[in-house]
Amino acid sequence: MKYGLFFLAVNIASVLFAQKKVIDHTVYDQWKTLGSAVLSEDGRFVTYEINPHKGDGYLYIYNVESDKLDSISRGAGAQFSGNGNYIAFRIKPHADSLRKLELDKVDKKKWPKDTLGIYHIGTDSLSKYPNLKSFELSEGSDWALIQFDNNDLPEQEGVKKKKKKKKKKGEEEYKSEGKLLAIYSPSGEMKYFKDVKGSTISHDGKYSAYFIHKKVKADSVHLVLRENLNDKEHAFSRASTDIQQLVFDRDSRYISYLSSADTAKQKNYALNLVALSEMKTLITIDSTSQFVPADHSPSTHFKPIFTLDGRRLFFGLGNRAEPEVKDTLLE
């Protein structure tokens, strides 16, 4: 009897050993990684990704209270909205489709674009917006900015498509490096703006800032500050040829940005500080300012930084060398 038990044990061990898969290069593509975990502010939800070495992965949304797990194929880069009412993320094209386009040497400009996914936590529903270029969520509210990779206004349901307007006499055609921007409200309403080259949103979502690019004979860029709650718009820097580095302070009292009126390729920039309560430019600092060293001007290589209390603004000065950090007191 003892011999029989020993024989059986030996046979089971040999079968298990025979079934064990050898770890070599052939299994690499089957390996999966878990990462990009994000916890909601209230701790009720967790998002994370599981991605294979090759192929399409999944974004998972886990409800800690109900123990419910949802998955979204090819989802990535999830972010919770400021008030935690929705989750925004990218939905990537199928990996096999991209690989085929790469092997066929198709121009990347013709590749399919990402789609923006918005998962509404309260209704457990998903909205999708194709042709995504980028998105930015307000940290303290449910307002958001969505930049698309095209520059065409979308057709509205129930509204007949208007015929293309004829060019008015004296009106010049223009080209634009800008794309379509949508301002997304907490109610889910979208307002669209064409020719937008760059944008940002304030911490509390009360203000959006974006600059529009048009080119007839030379570049023309102007900044628009928008009060999101009442749809008011304020135009700044209409004579600019370039605008960069839009930055709001945390309490939505100021916005700073860099602008240039130079038509040359190598541009000198000015730092502008706008008081949002008055929609008025308080300070402009450029190469002619007294404390700016000779051959220096505000640098686009250093993104301005407000202190948390909004009383100081740090920015860079440069002359094609390493930026020298300066600060100015806002009082």
Provide a compact summary of the structure.
This protein is mainly beta. It is 8% helix and 46% strand. Strands 5-6-7-8-9-10-11-12-13-14 form a ten-stranded antiparallel sheet, with no helix packed on it.
What would you say this structure looks like, in words?
It is a single chain. By secondary structure, this protein is mainly beta. The chain is 8% helix and 46% strand. The protein has a ten-stranded antiparallel beta sheet, with no helix packed on it. Strands 1-2-3-4 form a four-stranded antiparallel beta sheet, with no helix packed on it. Strands 15-16-17-18 form a four-stranded antiparallel beta sheet, with no helix packed on it. It is globular. The chain starts with a helix and ends with a strand. The model is unreliable at 1-10 (pLDDT under 50).
Share of helix among residues?
under 10%
What proportion of the residues form beta strands (DSSP E)? over 45%
Low-confidence stretches: 1-10
From the alpha-carbon coordinates, what is the Rg to the nearest angstrom? 27 Å
Overall average pLDDT: 85
The secondary structure category is mainly beta
Q: Can you tell me the overall shape?
A: globular
Order of helices and strands: HEEEEEEHEEEEEEEEEEEEEEEE
Sheet bearing the most strands, described? 10 strands, antiparallel
Number of helices: 2
Amino-to-carboxy terminus distance: 94 Å
Strand numbers in spatial order across the main sheet = 5-6-7-8-9-10-11-12-13-14
Number of strands: 22
